[in-house]
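Why does residue order matter? Because the sequence determines the fold. Keep that principle in mind as you read this record.
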Amino acid sequence: MSVFRHLLVHPGCQVGDLASQLGMPPSTASRIVKILTEEGFLEIRAKENQALGISILEDVVPVVNSWVRGHSGP
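Structure:
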């Protein structure tokens, strides 16, 4: 849930920033981003094989927004 909260406020952040802000190892953040991307929640924007940032897919933002509002825990 904290990943979604962070990305709602900071769309386009990088995995390293996400990990740092949420206090988790970069490998954990990478794994979470990979899973959420494969499940169709996130997109990774890249240019020439270099990740530019992570965002919640536009179609999914309303669902994630309501889900985040309904959960006050981490």
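Residues 14 and 53 are 5 Å apart (CA to CA).
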